[in-house]
Amino acid sequence: MAHRIHSSWLTLFSMMAFAFINLCSGAPNPHQREMLKRQEASRQTGGSVTLTPRELQLSAYLHKLKVKEMASVPFPPSMHYFKARPFIQQSAIFKLLRKMPKGAALHVHSSVLASAEWLVRNVTYRPHCYICFAWGGSVRFLFSDGQPYPRWECLYWQLLESLRAGMANPDEFDNSLVRNLTLFTEDPEAAYPSQESVWARFDDAFLAISGLVTYAPVFRDYLYQSLEEFYGDNVMYLEIRSGLSKTYELDGSIHDKVWSLKAYQDVSAKFSAEHPDFLGIRIILSSHRIQSVSMIKAAVMDAIEMQKNFPELIAGFDLVGREDDGRPLWYFREALSLPADLGVNLPYYFHAGETDLEGTDVDANLLDALLFNSSRIGHGYALPHHPLVKELSRKKGVAVEVCPISNQVLKLVSDMRNHPAAVLMTEGHPVVISSDDPTLFGTSGLSYDFYEAFVGIGGLSANLGTLKELAMNSIKYSSLSPVLKKALLDMWQKKWDKFISDQCQ
Ligand SMILES: *[C@@H]1O[C@H](CO)[C@@H](O)[C@H](O)[C@H]1NC(C)=O
Ligand SMILES: *[C@@H]1O[C@H](CO)[C@@H](O)[C@H](O)[C@H]1NC(C)=O
Ligand SMILES: *[C@@H]1O[C@H](CO)[C@@H](O)[C@H](O)[C@H]1NC(C)=O
Ligand SMILES: [Zn+2]
Fold first, then answer.
1. Which is a GO BP term held by this UniProt record (predicted)?
2. Which entry of 9, 169, 272, 402 is 20 to 30 Å from 383 by CA?
3. Of residues 69, 354, 401, 469, which has the active-site annotation?
4. Is the Cβ atom of 225 under 6 angstroms away from ligand 2?
């Protein structure tokens, strides 16, 4: 803080000097100009990170690559990610980002972590997997030891194994199943003319996936596979938002939420034991914002109870689902005040400001998130509309979880260079980068979103210091205890140092 006050006095002083020099000579003083540029650059994310000589060398190399990439046609961050993906995969910057230790993924949802390819080519090939073709051309899955009963939208279930056996081209069929589990399409502008249409497909894909991943034996494998994919992308820790959907067995019997929590705990412990440079996961319990006050009250009480029984695993509570369609935080004020009223601490990690509608009730979510002491803000896309809230979030150290590709696919922004996080990053607002729903968007881990943030949102000014601060932010603003934060930071630093020396050979 002291440093900031100091630098704003310096700015004022240099402006006065500037005016004086201007009076005397006519031309702006190039030294003053350099100084102002440096001062401005020092405010951005990573602007005050000191880099070692080797890091400076890598930063200069990245700068060169970026200049080249920005001049190329097409420039991937200016395009829809679905069209940009093949170009991003070719990018030398992207290849580096894949290898870079990125710290933690702090904004991801539990049923959309692993690749759709894996879900189709592995999970749907397991025995007893039934499929049904629902209204509107979408699909549902169910594992069952006998012919499943008809349901409202699924009158006829077919055993996938028999269905595939009678097919001339099961591979093509599998591709269509992959398309059902993602939003990916060649022509996203035509397929999704509005936010409503893309959210409808979003909800539908969630339903299609849920029959696969909530089958209890698959759930564990799925979780392990998800961690594998994030770990493969050099992510060391995840905070996963989960509604704790109940899992089921072949005979239709249902496990309770505690079963799911134990599964999270076991799989995370197993994975960390097998990968000592992976710290683990924590869960942010989440409820859908379409629910009633009494349901959210029950969910909050449930969360308090689960936090008491699983203190290492449970990080806090959130409300999920499209904000524009759901109820605003203020509507739930009675439910959300329960922990404070009861004198217990249930940290909040609210989605807020994932909207481009200004001045609506939902648009007040950003302010309300802070009034309810949210520890971070999910998306915060609308933050530049709210200067006071922005100031508060900075003062309180409430980081914004920026998910660039999610915002683009869900039609808040088209050209990443116009993403509002550009403002946050130039001001050095506390931000972290995350990927929200990798299965649905066809991303993997965090690297694609880091690419958009680094090349598109950050522009030429973003450098290796920016990347370093973004990775360190993901640890600093995590829900971990100070001791675990320190442990994770040390683990990360080791990997980072190795990453730097590997690049500089
Ligand atoms: C889902 O799969 C079905 C069956 O192959 C296919 O007819 C339909 O077009 C797919 N839906 C999408 C959105 O690709
Ligand atoms: C599916 O994944 C599991 C691990 O989760 C693995 O053991 C199995 O061999 C895979 N099966 C197929 C068909 O790929
Ligand atoms: C938020 O934090 C402040 C200061 O610690 C406290 O007074 C207030 O009760 C908290 N509000 C809620 C809703 O938890
Ligand atoms: Zn989200």
1. inosine biosynthetic process
2. 9
3. 354
4. yes
The yes-or-no verdict on residue 179 having pLDDT over 50 is: yes
**Residues in Cβ contact with 114 at an 8 Å cutoff, skipping those fewer than 6 apart:** 222, 225, 226, 229, 438, 439
pLDDT 10s digits, 407-466: 999 999 999 999 999 999 999 999 999 999 999 999 999 999 999 999 999 999 999 999
Name the superfamily (CATH) of residues 85-113+214-501. Metal-dependent hydrolases (3.20.20.140)
DSSP state of 77: G
Q: Is 427 a catalytic residue?
A: no
**Is 128 a residue of the active site?**
no
- Work out which ligand 1 atom sits closest to the CA atom of 177: 2
> For position 22, what pLDDT does the model report?
52
Give the closest residue (by CA) to ligand 3 atom 3: 373
Compute, in angstroms, the gap from residue 133 CA to the centroid of ligand 1: 8
Spatial contact of 61 and 467, defined as CB atoms under 8 Å apart: no
331 C-alpha to ligand 4 centroid (Å): 20
The Å distance, Cα 318 to ligand 4 centre, comes to 10
Is 227 within 8 Å of 238 (Cβ atoms)?
Answer: yes
Tens of pLDDT, residue by residue over 193-217, are 999 999 999 999 999 999 999 999 9
d(CA 95, CA 25): 49
What are the pocket residues of ligand 3 if the criterion is a CB atom closer than 6 Å to any ligand atom? 337, 340, 372-373
One DSSP character per residue, 156-190 reads --EEHHHHHHT-S-HHHHHHHHHHHHS---S-HHH
Mean pLDDT of all residues in 375-384: 97
Residues with Cβ < 8 Å from 66, sequence gap 6 or more? 93, 455, 460
Of residues 325, 237, 327, the one with CA closest to residue 291: 327
**Domain ranges across the chain:** 2-65, 85-113+214-501, 117-200
Listed residues: CB within 5 A of ion ligand 4 = 436
